[in-house]
Amino acid sequence: MQGTFTFLGTGTSVGVPVIGCKCRVCTSSDPHNKRSRSSALIQMGGTSLLVDSGPDLREQALREDLREIDAVLYTHSHLDHVAGFDELRAFCWRRDELLPMHATRECMDTLIQMFGWAFSEKNIYKGYVKPDPRIIDGPFFYGDLKITPLPVEHAAVETIGYRFDHPHARSIAYLPDVKRVPNDTMWQLREVDILIVDALRPEPHPTHCSIGEALEIIRQATPGEAWLTHLGHENDHTILGLELPAGVHVAWDGLKIAL
Amino acid sequence: MQGTFTFLGTGTSVGVPVIGCKCRVCTSSDPHNKRSRSSALIQMGGTSLLVDSGPDLREQALREDLREIDAVLYTHSHLDHVAGFDELRAFCWRRDELLPMHATRECMDTLIQMFGWAFSEKNIYKGYVKPDPRIIDGPFFYGDLKITPLPVEHAAVETIGYRFDHPHARSIAYLPDVKRVPNDTMWQLREVDILIVDALRPEPHPTHCSIGEALEIIRQATPGEAWLTHLGHENDHTILGLELPAGVHVAWDGLKIAL
């Protein structure tokens, strides 16, 4: 069994470069400093699960030559995680069944508010996104892959991360948008092999972890290895990497982790 | 007075390449066959007007090094023309005033339905999109640039194109999404110097002009020159160009027309 976790995007809500910005990171020639909006793909035993449908989904899918997915798992309803919803139609053309979309009740309600035509009974058009909405109320499975939703504190909207466990692969937890990890979720992170955490910038932010706050979450969870994501243009890939403790790394768009 | 019309994107709703497609155009190495979703920029005498905020707005703005715009003009509320709404915040950071957004009542209502937080009185956050909604009810001006909305038949949603006239520049009309031009609008196209028309593919489509239908609109309007846009992966840039009558051309992403 070989599973793969792919960072489709590792950037903050406006991406890097930022439109109109001439800072050192936004004008950097290092491809690691080009960050599309945070999204991920987990592939295990023939199953492909997309985490979020961000605004850069089309470019990310083209880059990874992604042709089929089995479901979408949403973390929350902010636009940098849902705005690419309509790109999902390319994945609906090639399947007979509806496309399962897992989200909290609140997140699903926002998707329905924004993209009501897709969820409507009148959606009979062949080319449209065809959602099969599934409200998250606890862990669920795709084959032997166990998916555990991880509630976190982020912003006014309800936000979750995900932990993925498979009997024959390393476990991985993905928290792309988080300001604080509640005790119940910290408990769920114990003994995870790989932990991925929001680390917006060095300075504090009201709804995202700073680098220091991300490192503190990692210290408490003590995973086998850790990766920082959802990175703003305050972070140069190489410089940030040099400042991190052993076992903590800076993710980049297209990075694949073998599970 | 030098004005410029820039094709930010010239692709159909799914863009070219299409996710997962291995056709000759989608796998072509010709950069003219890479088409982001249709959008345009008209710049005249220090004024920059963005037509639509499509899903590729960030990439388009980065490519053109676009840092400031004075207003957004919407053609209609389909996702391939509005999904990049949240990218507009980068253009709101750098101005003191709200960002004018011109749209029909129906289109504005859909924008408010989808992105209600931006239009809310509770939108006090510095980093957010700050719209100044302006309902279109006839021609309007930015300086000496006259903007005439051009109602067209396209799909179930109300759709308009735009004609731009300036006393010291060539006139240009932009109809990126159209199936049929009503008589009143055909009248408005008369004597336009440059006409840009939706030309999805050779075969007929329920809501977009085929190549033949686009050519018929151009024949009736008899502009000085004409350009085809909103192109699907059925069209190879070079092959299509060879088949067109004199004065009609295939647009591409990044093309600039001097006015």
Quick summary of this structure?
2 copies of one chain form a homodimer. The first copy, chain A, has helices at 57-63, 79-82, 89-92, 105-114, 116-119, 183-189, 211-221, 237-242, and strands at residues 3-9, 39-44, 47-51, 71-73, 99-103, 131-135, 140-142, 145-152, 159-165, 172-175, 194-198, 225-229, 248-250, 256-258.
The unreliable regions of chain A are: none
**CATH class assignment of chain A:** Alpha Beta
Cα separation of the termini of chain A: 9 Å
Separate helix tally of chain A = 8
Defining key terms:
homodimer; alpha/beta; Metallo-beta-lactamase, Chain A; seven-stranded mixed beta sheet; 8 helices; 14 strands
